[in-house]
Amino acid sequence: MRFDELDFEPSLIDGIDAMNFQEMTPVQEKAMPVVMEGKDLIACAQTGTGKTAAYLLPLINQLLRKPSHDKVRAIIMAPTRELAQQIDQQLEGISYFVPISSVAVYGGNDASAYETQKQAMKNGTDIVIATPGRLISHIKMENADFSGVEHFILDEADRMLDMGFYDDIISIVKTLPIKRQTVMFSATMPAKIKKLAETILHEPEFVNVAISKPAEGITQQAYICYETQKRMLVQKLLANNSVDKTIIFASSKQNVKDVYNALLRMKIKVGAMHSDLDQAFRDEVMLDYKSGKINVIVATDILSRGIDIEGIDMVINYDVPHDAEDYIHRIGRTARANRQGVGITFVSEKDQDRFGMIEQFLEKEIDKMPMPEGLGEGPAYNPQLKGRGGRRRPNSQRQMANDKRLKSNDKSRKSNDIGDNRSNDKRLKSNGIGDNRSNDKRLKSNDNGNDTNMQNANGNDESQRPRRYNNHRRRFNNNRNHNNHKTQQGESTKNDSVG
After folding, report:
1. Residue 186, beta-bridge partner list
2. Where are the beta strands (DSSP E) in 290-365?
3. No. of H helices and E strands in the chain?
4. Would you say 187 and 210 are in contact if contact means Cβ atoms under 8 Å apart?
5. Using one digit for the tens of pLDDT, what is the confidence trace for 8-43?
6. Cβ–Cβ < 8 Å for 333, 217
7. How far, CA to CA in Å, does 421 sit from each of 113, 356, 410, 417, 426?
């Protein structure tokens, strides 16, 4: 379906042509008509499927058809500054020929940027693109009036909840009019997303075009290595490859810093990206990466979603991602727009189970590459999977295991048959002798122990108790008698003092 087939305003069509949008993606074809009708929507769509345009185009079209006022008319929420910046840039391109104003609201910048954000919201900009934390800050300072908001859009909603923004989102929603259109885009649909949708959406339409599979153009590889081999391995790979652009994902800021410093010592043009860096530095790194001044970025997952950079040839997972969705988002930075790319994952001994679960989710085994010369051998790959019986063995191995179990069961049954007969004979013989002996002992005990039997009848027998219990009982009784004696003395003293 083409964009000009929808009922867009002529000035918006000019912007669409300028952006060279022609054929709609599946999520755009399904989601845009729903948004244009003003209905609430929850859409499950993977990153890189064109979902930003899927809500921007119908949003702008609706705003153009309504009279403007001096209040904020639409809010778009994004989990990270980078994604908020990218949405703002795409909005500027699409709305180039239309009279729509916007402002990007996020932290990490100077006081003048904060003042610009404040004035834009007070004057009533049409669209606010914001991260939850910074928007909450403006709300607390009473810098914004959201009583005129007609559209509320959440992009990468699952990522926002993963980052702990649930309470912030609910707080922001409480400042919005009850009558509004709410649109939510999410790459996954866990229970917490469904809970949020039930809370803030009203009779929403549901669109599901999530692919949940890596692009066909990505060559997936893995190196099974020890944790101590990772740094030398990444240096070997970068030294032996002549790729233009590479992203290395690490799961911690410390690993980002360590890898970044190691590559600097190799004289590689590298940048770092993590949440400890201020916004100006992060903007400079992204600009240098896009312009080619640096060709490697070492980053945390802040770059794994919503960042569209052309020409990334290779993605390296220095650490195994936490789940399959994160894996798909990370390696999805390469092979975009029908290009080719390579996604490489370092699997240390402690991450084998996690990587095995990713393979199980993808329903394929990722090629295991031999370690480069000079690094030594890595550990054997043997993930212990949970659920569905773990990692399935080949048919031949399963048949051998079944044969062994059957043979073992036959031996066990035979052993039980022989053992039961022998055991029964011994018990019969033992009972015949034992009954006579125990009868003699009981008769003798009854003659000599009538007093003890009377104690047993009253439940006070201590002779059959364990020795530890008897010693404890005697100490308890002695202490009780001693305490009773002291109590009697105390009562006597008390009576004397009162008298």
Report:
1. 44
2. 296-299, 314-317, 341-347
3. 17, 14
4. yes
5. 999 999 999 888 888 898 899 999 999 999 999 999
6. no
7. 91, 49, 17, 7, 9
